[in-house]
Amino acid sequence: MEMKLTIKRVPTVLSNYQEEGGGGCGRNCLGDCCLPASKLPLYAFKADPKKPAQDDELPTEFFLNSLLLAQISELYQMFPLRNKNETSSLVTLKHKWEDRVARGLFRYDVTACETKVIPGELGFVAQLNEGRHLKKRPTEFRVDRVLQPFDSAKFNFTKVGQEEVLFRFEKGGGGSSYFLENAPSTEGDHAPSVVAINVSPIEYGHVLLIPRVLDRLPQQIDPESFLLALHMAAEAASPYFRLGYNSLGAFATINHLHFQAYYLSVPFPVEKAPTKKIPLAKCALNSGVKVSKLTNFPVRGLVFERGNTLKDLADVVTNACIWLQENNVPFNVLISDSGRRIFVFPQCYAEKQALGEVSQDLLDTQVNPAVWEISGHIVLKRRTDFEEASEASAWRLLAEVSLSEERFEEVKACIFEATGLTESDEEEESSESPYASSSSVPRASSHMSEGCLVLQAFVEERGHVAVLGTGEVDAQSLNPRHSRREEVDAQMACWLPASTHPNPGPQPVPVDAVWMLDLHPNPGPHGT
Protein backbone atom coordinates (compact mmCIF):
# COMPACT_ATOMS: atom_id res chain seq x y z
CA MET A 1 0.00 0.00 0.00
CA GLU A 2 1.26 3.47 -0.91
CA MET A 3 2.30 5.56 2.07
CA LYS A 4 0.72 9.00 2.14
CA LEU A 5 2.47 11.94 3.75
CA THR A 6 -0.01 14.27 5.43
CA ILE A 7 0.07 17.17 7.85
CA LYS A 8 -2.63 18.83 9.90
CA ARG A 9 -2.93 22.59 9.68
CA VAL A 10 -5.54 25.27 10.06
CA PRO A 11 -6.64 26.17 6.54
CA THR A 12 -6.57 29.82 5.57
CA VAL A 13 -10.04 31.14 4.80
CA LEU A 14 -9.75 32.93 1.45
CA SER A 15 -13.50 33.39 0.89
CA ASN A 16 -16.53 33.86 3.11
CA TYR A 17 -18.14 30.94 1.27
CA GLN A 18 -15.30 28.54 1.99
CA GLU A 19 -17.03 26.76 4.85
CA GLU A 20 -20.42 26.43 3.21
CA GLY A 21 -21.38 23.15 1.61
CA GLY A 22 -22.90 22.63 -1.81
CA GLY A 23 -22.93 24.89 -4.82
CA GLY A 24 -23.70 28.56 -5.06
CA CYS A 25 -26.67 28.57 -7.45
CA GLY A 26 -29.12 31.32 -6.63
CA ARG A 27 -26.70 33.61 -4.81
CA ASN A 28 -24.79 35.31 -7.62
CA CYS A 29 -21.73 33.08 -7.59
CA LEU A 30 -18.85 32.47 -10.02
CA GLY A 31 -20.26 29.19 -11.27
CA ASP A 32 -21.88 28.30 -14.57
CA CYS A 33 -25.28 29.19 -13.11
CA CYS A 34 -24.49 32.86 -12.52
CA LEU A 35 -21.21 34.07 -14.05
CA PRO A 36 -22.14 33.90 -17.77
CA ALA A 37 -24.99 36.37 -17.23
CA SER A 38 -22.99 38.73 -15.01
CA LYS A 39 -21.73 42.23 -15.77
CA LEU A 40 -18.59 42.46 -13.69
CA PRO A 41 -16.14 45.33 -14.14
CA LEU A 42 -13.43 44.53 -16.71
CA TYR A 43 -9.78 45.56 -16.77
CA ALA A 44 -8.37 44.72 -20.20
CA PHE A 45 -4.58 44.85 -20.37
CA LYS A 46 -2.50 45.52 -23.44
CA ALA A 47 -0.54 42.64 -24.89
CA ASP A 48 2.86 44.35 -24.83
CA PRO A 49 3.70 46.20 -21.59
CA LYS A 50 6.81 47.69 -23.26
CA LYS A 51 4.78 49.32 -26.03
CA PRO A 52 4.81 53.15 -25.79
CA ALA A 53 1.70 54.62 -24.19
CA GLN A 54 -1.06 55.79 -26.51
CA ASP A 55 -2.88 59.11 -26.21
CA ASP A 56 -5.88 57.37 -24.66
CA GLU A 57 -3.78 55.12 -22.43
CA LEU A 58 -4.80 54.78 -18.79
CA PRO A 59 -2.34 56.46 -16.40
CA THR A 60 0.33 54.05 -15.16
CA GLU A 61 -0.97 54.39 -11.60
CA PHE A 62 -4.54 53.51 -12.59
CA PHE A 63 -4.46 49.75 -12.00
CA LEU A 64 -2.90 49.81 -8.54
CA ASN A 65 -3.93 53.12 -7.04
CA SER A 66 -7.34 53.68 -8.60
CA LEU A 67 -8.64 50.22 -9.23
CA LEU A 68 -7.16 48.06 -6.48
CA LEU A 69 -6.36 50.53 -3.74
CA ALA A 70 -8.51 53.38 -5.09
CA GLN A 71 -6.83 56.44 -3.68
CA ILE A 72 -5.83 58.45 -6.72
CA SER A 73 -9.46 59.50 -7.11
CA GLU A 74 -9.17 61.33 -3.79
CA LEU A 75 -6.08 63.15 -5.00
CA TYR A 76 -7.73 64.12 -8.26
CA GLN A 77 -10.56 65.64 -6.24
CA MET A 78 -8.03 67.59 -4.19
CA PHE A 79 -6.21 69.00 -7.23
CA PRO A 80 -7.55 70.39 -10.53
CA LEU A 81 -6.78 68.50 -13.71
CA ARG A 82 -4.21 70.39 -15.72
CA ASN A 83 -5.28 68.65 -18.91
CA LYS A 84 -9.06 68.52 -19.34
CA ASN A 85 -8.67 65.53 -21.65
CA GLU A 86 -7.36 63.43 -18.77
CA THR A 87 -9.65 60.55 -17.86
CA SER A 88 -12.40 61.48 -15.42
CA SER A 89 -12.98 57.86 -14.47
CA LEU A 90 -10.35 58.30 -11.76
CA VAL A 91 -12.75 60.61 -9.93
CA THR A 92 -15.88 58.50 -10.25
CA LEU A 93 -14.41 55.00 -10.03
CA LYS A 94 -15.73 52.94 -7.14
CA HIS A 95 -13.28 52.21 -4.42
CA LYS A 96 -12.90 48.54 -5.16
CA TRP A 97 -10.98 47.20 -2.21
CA GLU A 98 -12.11 49.88 0.24
CA ASP A 99 -15.71 49.29 -0.84
CA ARG A 100 -15.41 45.68 0.34
CA VAL A 101 -13.96 46.94 3.60
CA ALA A 102 -16.98 49.18 4.11
CA ARG A 103 -19.31 46.27 3.36
CA GLY A 104 -17.70 44.15 6.08
CA LEU A 105 -16.50 41.36 3.80
CA PHE A 106 -13.15 40.88 5.55
CA ARG A 107 -12.69 38.69 8.60
CA TYR A 108 -10.61 41.30 10.44
CA ASP A 109 -9.07 44.75 10.02
CA VAL A 110 -5.60 44.10 8.64
CA THR A 111 -4.64 47.75 9.15
CA ALA A 112 -4.88 47.14 12.90
CA CYS A 113 -2.33 44.32 12.82
CA GLU A 114 0.98 45.23 14.42
CA THR A 115 3.90 45.06 12.02
CA LYS A 116 7.60 45.72 12.51
CA VAL A 117 10.93 45.36 10.77
CA ILE A 118 13.16 42.96 12.66
CA PRO A 119 16.62 44.47 13.25
CA GLY A 120 19.30 42.77 11.21
CA GLU A 121 21.05 42.70 7.88
CA LEU A 122 18.08 41.45 5.85
CA GLY A 123 15.31 43.29 7.66
CA PHE A 124 12.70 40.55 7.97
CA VAL A 125 9.18 41.93 8.35
CA ALA A 126 7.06 40.44 11.14
CA GLN A 127 3.31 40.84 11.49
CA LEU A 128 1.17 39.87 14.47
CA ASN A 129 -2.09 38.54 13.04
CA GLU A 130 -4.06 36.76 15.73
CA GLY A 131 -7.30 36.80 13.74
CA ARG A 132 -6.15 34.69 10.82
CA HIS A 133 -6.56 31.28 12.45
CA LEU A 134 -8.88 31.67 15.44
CA LYS A 135 -11.79 29.25 15.90
CA LYS A 136 -10.54 27.03 13.11
CA ARG A 137 -10.06 23.29 13.29
CA PRO A 138 -6.93 21.74 11.80
CA THR A 139 -7.53 19.95 8.51
CA GLU A 140 -5.50 17.10 7.07
CA PHE A 141 -3.60 17.88 3.88
CA ARG A 142 -1.64 15.53 1.68
CA VAL A 143 1.81 17.00 1.04
CA ASP A 144 3.52 14.36 -1.11
CA ARG A 145 1.55 14.99 -4.30
CA VAL A 146 2.13 18.33 -6.01
CA LEU A 147 -0.26 17.41 -8.82
CA GLN A 148 -3.72 16.38 -7.68
CA PRO A 149 -6.91 16.30 -9.75
CA PHE A 150 -9.50 19.02 -9.31
CA ASP A 151 -12.23 17.91 -6.90
CA SER A 152 -15.53 19.73 -7.46
CA ALA A 153 -16.87 18.35 -4.17
CA LYS A 154 -14.38 20.49 -2.23
CA PHE A 155 -14.42 24.25 -1.96
CA ASN A 156 -13.35 26.01 -5.13
CA PHE A 157 -13.62 29.55 -6.41
CA THR A 158 -16.74 28.95 -8.50
CA LYS A 159 -18.57 29.00 -5.15
CA VAL A 160 -17.40 32.53 -4.33
CA GLY A 161 -20.04 35.26 -4.32
CA GLN A 162 -19.60 37.99 -6.91
CA GLU A 163 -19.51 40.64 -4.18
CA GLU A 164 -15.99 39.38 -3.40
CA VAL A 165 -14.86 39.97 -7.00
CA LEU A 166 -13.24 43.31 -7.80
CA PHE A 167 -13.06 42.93 -11.58
CA ARG A 168 -12.28 40.63 -14.46
CA PHE A 169 -8.70 40.75 -15.71
CA GLU A 170 -8.25 39.82 -19.35
CA LYS A 171 -6.21 40.62 -22.42
CA GLY A 172 -7.66 43.46 -24.48
CA GLY A 173 -7.95 43.57 -28.22
CA GLY A 174 -5.94 46.74 -28.83
CA GLY A 175 -2.63 48.32 -27.98
CA SER A 176 -3.86 50.09 -24.85
CA SER A 177 -5.19 48.97 -21.50
CA TYR A 178 -8.73 50.04 -20.67
CA PHE A 179 -11.36 49.68 -17.95
CA LEU A 180 -15.12 49.12 -18.18
CA GLU A 181 -17.27 49.43 -15.07
CA ASN A 182 -19.94 47.08 -16.43
CA ALA A 183 -18.89 44.54 -19.05
CA PRO A 184 -21.13 41.66 -20.14
CA SER A 185 -19.43 38.28 -20.03
CA THR A 186 -18.35 37.05 -23.44
CA GLU A 187 -20.11 34.13 -25.04
CA GLY A 188 -18.53 30.89 -26.19
CA ASP A 189 -15.64 28.92 -24.77
CA HIS A 190 -13.88 31.84 -23.08
CA ALA A 191 -13.70 31.45 -19.30
CA PRO A 192 -13.06 34.78 -17.55
CA SER A 193 -10.16 35.41 -15.20
CA VAL A 194 -11.10 37.38 -12.09
CA VAL A 195 -9.46 39.33 -9.29
CA ALA A 196 -11.16 38.76 -5.92
CA ILE A 197 -10.45 39.87 -2.38
CA ASN A 198 -8.72 37.58 0.10
CA VAL A 199 -11.03 37.82 3.11
CA SER A 200 -8.09 36.89 5.38
CA PRO A 201 -5.64 39.53 4.15
CA ILE A 202 -1.98 39.62 5.09
CA GLU A 203 -1.61 43.21 3.93
CA TYR A 204 -3.50 46.08 2.41
CA GLY A 205 -4.90 45.28 -1.03
CA HIS A 206 -4.52 41.50 -0.63
CA VAL A 207 -6.25 39.89 -3.60
CA LEU A 208 -6.49 36.62 -5.51
CA LEU A 209 -5.96 36.26 -9.24
CA ILE A 210 -8.05 33.30 -10.43
CA PRO A 211 -7.26 32.40 -14.05
CA ARG A 212 -10.12 31.10 -16.20
CA VAL A 213 -12.29 30.40 -13.18
CA LEU A 214 -14.91 28.31 -15.02
CA ASP A 215 -12.25 25.96 -16.41
CA ARG A 216 -11.79 24.64 -12.85
CA LEU A 217 -8.04 24.27 -13.18
CA PRO A 218 -6.18 22.49 -10.38
CA GLN A 219 -3.40 24.31 -8.55
CA GLN A 220 -0.62 23.88 -11.09
CA ILE A 221 1.32 26.28 -13.30
CA ASP A 222 0.56 26.45 -17.02
CA PRO A 223 1.97 28.88 -19.65
CA GLU A 224 -1.18 30.94 -20.19
CA SER A 225 -1.96 31.42 -16.51
CA PHE A 226 1.60 32.31 -15.53
CA LEU A 227 1.83 34.89 -18.30
CA LEU A 228 -1.46 36.34 -17.02
CA ALA A 229 0.12 36.76 -13.58
CA LEU A 230 3.11 38.58 -15.09
CA HIS A 231 0.76 40.91 -16.94
CA MET A 232 -0.96 41.75 -13.66
CA ALA A 233 2.39 42.64 -12.11
CA ALA A 234 3.27 44.74 -15.15
CA GLU A 235 -0.04 46.61 -15.05
CA ALA A 236 0.43 47.41 -11.36
CA ALA A 237 3.74 49.06 -12.34
CA SER A 238 5.00 49.18 -8.75
CA PRO A 239 7.98 47.38 -7.19
CA TYR A 240 5.94 47.13 -3.99
CA PHE A 241 3.09 45.11 -5.49
CA ARG A 242 4.05 41.44 -5.73
CA LEU A 243 2.31 38.25 -6.76
CA GLY A 244 2.93 34.90 -5.13
CA TYR A 245 2.17 31.28 -5.90
CA ASN A 246 2.15 28.23 -3.62
CA SER A 247 2.05 24.73 -5.03
CA LEU A 248 0.31 21.85 -3.31
CA GLY A 249 2.75 20.50 -0.76
CA ALA A 250 4.09 24.04 -0.30
CA PHE A 251 1.12 25.35 1.71
CA ALA A 252 -1.50 25.93 -0.94
CA THR A 253 -4.74 24.81 0.73
CA ILE A 254 -7.20 25.15 -2.15
CA ASN A 255 -6.71 22.98 -5.22
CA HIS A 256 -8.12 25.53 -7.66
CA LEU A 257 -5.58 27.56 -9.60
CA HIS A 258 -4.91 30.94 -8.02
CA PHE A 259 -2.17 33.46 -7.37
CA GLN A 260 -2.07 35.87 -4.44
CA ALA A 261 -0.97 39.49 -4.49
CA TYR A 262 -0.72 42.46 -2.17
CA TYR A 263 1.03 45.77 -1.63
CA LEU A 264 3.79 46.35 0.94
CA SER A 265 5.90 49.48 0.57
CA VAL A 266 9.21 48.03 1.73
CA PRO A 267 11.63 45.73 -0.08
CA PHE A 268 11.18 42.09 0.83
CA PRO A 269 14.31 40.61 2.42
CA VAL A 270 14.72 38.18 -0.48
CA GLU A 271 14.74 41.13 -2.88
CA LYS A 272 17.69 42.58 -0.95
CA ALA A 273 19.59 39.29 -0.74
CA PRO A 274 22.78 38.95 -2.79
CA THR A 275 22.74 36.64 -5.79
CA LYS A 276 25.30 34.81 -7.88
CA LYS A 277 24.78 35.00 -11.62
CA ILE A 278 24.85 31.66 -13.40
CA PRO A 279 26.73 32.08 -16.71
CA LEU A 280 24.81 30.64 -19.64
CA ALA A 281 26.08 29.29 -22.93
CA LYS A 282 25.37 31.53 -25.93
CA CYS A 283 22.87 29.04 -27.32
CA ALA A 284 20.78 29.53 -24.16
CA LEU A 285 20.67 33.32 -24.40
CA ASN A 286 18.11 33.65 -27.19
CA SER A 287 15.30 34.44 -24.75
CA GLY A 288 17.32 37.15 -23.02
CA VAL A 289 16.52 35.60 -19.62
CA LYS A 290 19.23 35.86 -16.95
CA VAL A 291 19.43 33.31 -14.13
CA SER A 292 21.02 33.66 -10.71
CA LYS A 293 20.91 31.79 -7.43
CA LEU A 294 20.41 33.30 -4.02
CA THR A 295 23.36 33.54 -1.65
CA ASN A 296 23.39 34.43 2.04
CA PHE A 297 19.68 33.73 2.35
CA PRO A 298 18.13 30.93 4.45
CA VAL A 299 16.15 29.40 1.56
CA ARG A 300 17.96 28.31 -1.60
CA GLY A 301 16.29 29.54 -4.74
CA LEU A 302 16.70 30.58 -8.35
CA VAL A 303 16.15 34.08 -9.69
CA PHE A 304 14.96 34.60 -13.26
CA GLU A 305 14.93 38.11 -14.74
CA ARG A 306 14.83 40.26 -17.84
CA GLY A 307 13.88 38.40 -21.02
CA ASN A 308 13.40 39.92 -24.46
CA THR A 309 9.65 39.95 -23.84
CA LEU A 310 7.37 39.22 -20.93
CA LYS A 311 6.41 35.98 -22.67
CA ASP A 312 10.06 34.91 -22.97
CA LEU A 313 10.48 35.25 -19.21
CA ALA A 314 7.14 33.56 -18.54
CA ASP A 315 7.99 30.61 -20.79
CA VAL A 316 11.31 29.90 -19.09
CA VAL A 317 9.87 30.08 -15.57
CA THR A 318 6.79 28.08 -16.57
CA ASN A 319 8.97 25.26 -17.88
CA ALA A 320 10.92 25.29 -14.62
CA CYS A 321 7.69 25.08 -12.60
CA ILE A 322 6.28 22.34 -14.81
CA TRP A 323 9.36 20.22 -14.17
CA LEU A 324 9.04 20.78 -10.42
CA GLN A 325 5.36 19.87 -10.24
CA GLU A 326 5.69 16.86 -12.57
CA ASN A 327 8.57 15.56 -10.47
CA ASN A 328 6.75 16.09 -7.20
CA VAL A 329 8.93 18.88 -5.84
CA PRO A 330 6.81 21.39 -3.86
CA PHE A 331 7.68 24.99 -4.66
CA ASN A 332 6.79 28.65 -4.20
CA VAL A 333 7.11 31.53 -6.65
CA LEU A 334 7.47 35.26 -6.01
CA ILE A 335 6.81 37.65 -8.91
CA SER A 336 8.66 40.87 -8.18
CA ASP A 337 9.74 44.14 -9.79
CA SER A 338 6.59 44.59 -11.91
CA GLY A 339 6.99 41.13 -13.42
CA ARG A 340 10.64 41.53 -14.38
CA ARG A 341 12.16 39.44 -11.58
CA ILE A 342 10.91 36.03 -10.47
CA PHE A 343 12.08 33.91 -7.53
CA VAL A 344 11.51 30.14 -7.56
CA PHE A 345 11.92 28.26 -4.27
CA PRO A 346 11.82 24.45 -4.22
CA GLN A 347 10.98 23.53 -0.62
CA CYS A 348 10.58 20.60 1.74
CA TYR A 349 9.14 21.96 5.02
CA ALA A 350 5.79 20.17 4.81
CA GLU A 351 7.54 16.90 3.97
CA LYS A 352 9.82 17.30 6.99
CA GLN A 353 6.79 18.12 9.10
CA ALA A 354 4.97 14.99 7.95
CA LEU A 355 8.04 12.89 8.71
CA GLY A 356 8.40 14.37 12.20
CA GLU A 357 11.67 16.12 11.38
CA VAL A 358 10.66 19.65 12.42
CA SER A 359 11.26 20.64 16.03
CA GLN A 360 8.18 21.11 18.19
CA ASP A 361 8.99 24.71 19.10
CA LEU A 362 8.88 25.66 15.41
CA LEU A 363 5.61 23.79 14.94
CA ASP A 364 4.16 25.57 17.97
CA THR A 365 4.55 28.92 16.20
CA GLN A 366 1.91 27.70 13.68
CA VAL A 367 3.81 29.53 10.93
CA ASN A 368 3.21 27.96 7.55
CA PRO A 369 6.22 29.00 5.44
CA ALA A 370 4.59 29.73 2.10
CA VAL A 371 5.72 32.30 -0.47
CA TRP A 372 5.29 35.41 1.69
CA GLU A 373 7.08 33.94 4.69
CA ILE A 374 9.91 32.61 2.51
CA SER A 375 10.28 36.05 0.94
CA GLY A 376 10.70 37.53 4.41
CA HIS A 377 7.22 38.77 5.40
CA ILE A 378 6.42 36.49 8.32
CA VAL A 379 2.93 36.31 9.79
CA LEU A 380 2.98 35.33 13.47
CA LYS A 381 -0.07 34.18 15.43
CA ARG A 382 1.24 34.54 19.00
CA ARG A 383 2.22 37.78 20.67
CA THR A 384 5.19 36.18 22.41
CA ASP A 385 6.62 35.08 19.05
CA PHE A 386 6.08 38.58 17.67
CA GLU A 387 7.72 40.33 20.62
CA GLU A 388 10.68 37.94 20.66
CA ALA A 389 11.14 37.82 16.88
CA SER A 390 14.75 38.18 15.76
CA GLU A 391 16.71 37.67 12.58
CA ALA A 392 18.14 34.49 14.09
CA SER A 393 14.68 33.03 14.79
CA ALA A 394 13.45 33.95 11.30
CA TRP A 395 16.56 32.42 9.74
CA ARG A 396 16.15 29.25 11.79
CA LEU A 397 12.55 28.79 10.67
CA LEU A 398 13.23 29.44 6.99
CA ALA A 399 16.35 27.26 6.93
CA GLU A 400 14.05 24.30 7.59
CA VAL A 401 12.21 25.15 4.37
CA SER A 402 15.25 24.93 2.14
CA LEU A 403 16.52 21.96 0.18
CA SER A 404 20.01 20.82 1.06
CA GLU A 405 22.83 22.17 -1.11
CA GLU A 406 23.26 18.79 -2.80
CA ARG A 407 19.56 18.33 -3.51
CA PHE A 408 19.21 21.92 -4.70
CA GLU A 409 22.01 21.49 -7.23
CA GLU A 410 20.35 18.31 -8.52
CA VAL A 411 17.04 20.13 -8.93
CA LYS A 412 18.75 23.11 -10.55
CA ALA A 413 20.42 20.86 -13.14
CA CYS A 414 17.08 19.27 -14.01
CA ILE A 415 15.40 22.67 -14.29
CA PHE A 416 18.11 23.85 -16.66
CA GLU A 417 17.60 20.81 -18.84
CA ALA A 418 13.82 21.31 -18.84
CA THR A 419 14.11 24.98 -19.78
CA GLY A 420 16.76 24.50 -22.46
CA LEU A 421 19.34 26.47 -20.50
CA THR A 422 22.97 25.41 -20.50
CA GLU A 423 25.60 26.60 -18.06
CA SER A 424 28.82 27.84 -19.60
CA ASP A 425 32.27 27.12 -18.22
CA GLU A 426 32.73 30.71 -17.12
CA GLU A 427 33.00 31.42 -13.43
CA GLU A 428 29.82 32.49 -11.68
CA GLU A 429 29.52 36.20 -10.95
CA SER A 430 28.27 37.60 -7.69
CA SER A 431 25.91 40.54 -7.84
CA GLU A 432 24.04 42.76 -5.46
CA SER A 433 20.29 43.12 -5.28
CA PRO A 434 18.73 46.31 -6.63
CA TYR A 435 17.85 47.03 -3.00
CA ALA A 436 21.32 46.33 -1.64
CA SER A 437 22.02 50.01 -1.09
CA SER A 438 18.74 50.56 0.74
CA SER A 439 18.78 51.88 4.26
CA SER A 440 18.91 49.24 6.95
CA VAL A 441 15.57 50.59 8.14
CA PRO A 442 13.09 50.39 5.25
CA ARG A 443 10.43 53.00 4.69
CA ALA A 444 7.31 52.74 6.73
CA SER A 445 4.30 51.19 5.09
CA SER A 446 1.55 53.76 5.22
CA HIS A 447 -1.19 51.49 3.89
CA MET A 448 -1.31 54.11 1.19
CA SER A 449 -0.57 52.80 -2.23
CA GLU A 450 3.03 53.73 -2.85
CA GLY A 451 2.51 57.14 -1.31
CA CYS A 452 5.87 58.57 -2.32
CA LEU A 453 5.45 57.64 -5.97
CA VAL A 454 1.80 58.63 -6.09
CA LEU A 455 2.42 62.06 -4.62
CA GLN A 456 5.58 62.48 -6.64
CA ALA A 457 3.50 61.98 -9.77
CA PHE A 458 1.24 64.81 -8.66
CA VAL A 459 4.18 67.03 -7.78
CA GLU A 460 5.73 66.47 -11.20
CA GLU A 461 2.46 66.62 -13.12
CA ARG A 462 0.72 69.46 -11.33
CA GLY A 463 3.58 71.48 -9.90
CA HIS A 464 2.54 71.16 -6.25
CA VAL A 465 4.78 70.64 -3.26
CA ALA A 466 3.70 68.64 -0.23
CA VAL A 467 4.38 70.39 3.05
CA LEU A 468 4.29 68.49 6.31
CA GLY A 469 3.50 70.10 9.64
CA THR A 470 4.31 68.54 12.96
CA GLY A 471 4.08 64.81 13.37
CA GLU A 472 6.54 62.00 13.83
CA VAL A 473 6.85 58.55 12.37
CA ASP A 474 8.43 55.59 14.08
CA ALA A 475 10.65 54.30 11.27
CA GLN A 476 10.57 50.81 12.76
CA SER A 477 6.78 50.66 12.58
CA LEU A 478 4.88 49.77 9.43
CA ASN A 479 1.53 50.73 10.93
CA PRO A 480 1.58 54.54 11.33
CA ARG A 481 -1.64 55.05 13.25
CA HIS A 482 -1.03 58.81 13.47
CA SER A 483 -1.67 59.42 9.79
CA ARG A 484 -5.41 58.92 9.51
CA ARG A 485 -7.71 61.25 7.62
CA GLU A 486 -8.76 63.26 10.66
CA GLU A 487 -5.11 64.06 11.40
CA VAL A 488 -3.93 64.83 7.90
CA ASP A 489 -5.11 68.44 7.98
CA ALA A 490 -3.11 69.05 11.13
CA GLN A 491 -0.02 67.45 9.66
CA MET A 492 -0.19 69.04 6.24
CA ALA A 493 0.53 72.77 6.45
CA CYS A 494 -0.40 73.56 2.88
CA TRP A 495 -0.21 72.55 -0.77
CA LEU A 496 1.26 75.34 -2.86
CA PRO A 497 2.62 75.69 -6.37
CA ALA A 498 6.36 75.10 -6.19
CA SER A 499 7.12 78.47 -7.77
CA THR A 500 5.26 80.43 -5.07
CA HIS A 501 6.26 78.52 -1.96
CA PRO A 502 7.38 80.98 0.74
CA ASN A 503 10.65 80.60 2.55
CA PRO A 504 9.24 81.22 6.05
CA GLY A 505 7.13 78.69 7.84
CA PRO A 506 7.00 74.97 7.26
CA GLN A 507 9.58 73.69 4.84
CA PRO A 508 8.74 71.47 1.85
CA VAL A 509 9.20 67.82 2.52
CA PRO A 510 11.47 66.03 0.02
CA VAL A 511 9.33 64.04 -2.35
CA ASP A 512 10.90 60.78 -1.24
CA ALA A 513 9.78 61.47 2.32
CA VAL A 514 6.11 61.99 1.59
CA TRP A 515 5.54 58.31 2.27
CA MET A 516 4.77 59.36 5.86
CA LEU A 517 1.32 60.61 4.87
CA ASP A 518 -1.67 58.32 4.66
CA LEU A 519 -4.69 59.88 2.97
CA HIS A 520 -6.92 56.93 3.72
CA PRO A 521 -9.67 57.32 6.29
CA ASN A 522 -9.61 54.91 9.17
CA PRO A 523 -11.99 52.17 8.03
CA GLY A 524 -12.67 51.10 11.57
CA PRO A 525 -13.42 47.55 12.63
CA HIS A 526 -15.04 45.28 10.12
CA GLY A 527 -15.57 41.61 9.62
CA THR A 528 -15.57 39.07 12.40
UniProtKB/TrEMBL annotation:
It is found in: Cytoplasm. GO terms for molecular function: GDP-D-glucose phosphorylase activity; guanyl-nucleotide exchange factor activity; hydrolase activity; nucleotide binding. GO terms for cellular component: cytoplasm. Keywords: Cytoplasm, Guanine-nucleotide releasing factor, Hydrolase, Nucleotide-binding, Nucleotidyltransferase, Transferase. The keyword Hydrolase applies. It holds the Pfam family GDPGP1_C. Residues 419-444 are annotated as: Disordered. Residues 432-444 have a biased composition (Low complexity). GO terms for biological process: glucose metabolic process. Residues 92-262 form the GDPGP1-like N-terminal domain. InterPro entries: GDPGP, GDPGP1_C, GDPGP1_N. Residues 269-420 form the GDPGP1-like C-terminal domain. Belongs to the GDPGP1 family. This is GDP-L-galactose phosphorylase 1.
